[in-house]
Design goal:
The structure is a homodimer of 165-residue chains. With 165 residues, chain A is mostly helical. Chain A has a single domain, classed as Four Helix Bundle (Hemerythrin (Met), subunit A) (Up-down Bundle). Chain A is built from 4 helices and 3 strands; from the N terminus they run βαααββα. In chain A, strands 2-3 form a two-stranded antiparallel sheet. In chain A, a hairpin with a 3-residue loop joins strand 2 and strand 3. The longest helix of chain A has 25 residues. Chain A is globular and about 45 Å long. The relative contact order of chain A is 0.18. The interface between A and B is large, with 49 and 49 residues. Strand 1 of chain A pairs antiparallel with strand 1 of chain B. Chains A, B: GO terms for molecular function: metal ion binding.
């Protein structure tokens, strides 16, 4: 009798594990933290280009969406974005570290089946939870890169993109 | 007798499938294509901020690294970055579409086991192949976001980040 085991097409097999994606994200977060550290304190809340938001507001969006978003992924409860309450870079970095720890705490509590579930993130954005988590990561890369340009125009060399140590 | 089946920790289970990651990337590539279309033709090869490369060179890096990189992922043969040979936006867009098709062709030829293999990408960057593919995607998001700032300072509204249609 021939072996009739169904072979799953390669396209439907895992690209990476949940733990690997977490590690990838936290590596990006280390780079974003380094960007905040490199930004001049006296420009962090004010400097902008082309009418865009200053670095502080770009980081505030990342922080607020990530904290509340990960809670939504875990529990299906979507609270409003958390607001960043900080008037210095040190306070921003402290909140950054809190959200980093929050991600590490929440991640193992997310059932694997949840990644493929469709939910209405923040009551607004419908999609699978893996899509939403990728959105959080991509949005961080996108806004951080804009702050790279701010730094360059301020004459400051940004942290190396490839270095996630 | 108790059921002693080993339950794999959630952290080691799949975050998303290979096909889902491909779809995610191609959605990003549609946005990058729209960014190229939105960039003024007379500024595409020249305009820059802070001593950075013009939009044409940011896109050339994405194109060259992606084309040669995907061939390396498939075959383990790492040729030099492909260079972009284009003197107009239309030529850039034509090369963009070639690489889009190349990714779609190569993707199903990559054995699933390859994602977890370690290789020396371009003879320089050691890592797993899933890490390298994520690097290609992240690098595209990073450079595209910098071109967003160029557009803003040129007084042009960039394509919406969330729209990947």
């Amino acid at each position: 009798m021939e072996n009739t085991t169904q072979i799953e097409p390669a396209q439907n097999q895992a690209f990476l594990s949940s733990q690997q994606l977490l590690d990838h994200w936290q590596a990006h977060r280390r780079l974003t933290r380094r960007l905040i550290e490199a930004f001049p304190a006296d420009q962090f809340f004010t400097y902008s280009l082309g009418g865009m938001r200053p670095c502080s507001e770009l980081i505030a969006e990342i922080l607020g969406m990530t904290g509340a978003g990960m809670e939504g992924v875990r529990s299906g409860r979507w609270d409003a974005f958390q607001t960043m309450d900080a008037s210095s870079k040190d306070e921003v970095l402290a909140q950054w570290d809190q959200v980093t720890a929050q991600i590490d705490t929440i991640w193992p509590q997310i059932p694997t089946s949840r990644y493929q579930e469709v939910d209405l993130a923040f009551g607004l954005y419908e999609g699978t939870m893996y899509w939403f988590i990728l959105y959080l990561i991509d949005n961080e890369i996108h806004h951080r890169a804009q702050a790279y340009v701010y730094l360059r125009t301020l004459g400051i060399e940004p942290p190396a993109f490839w270095d996630r140590s």
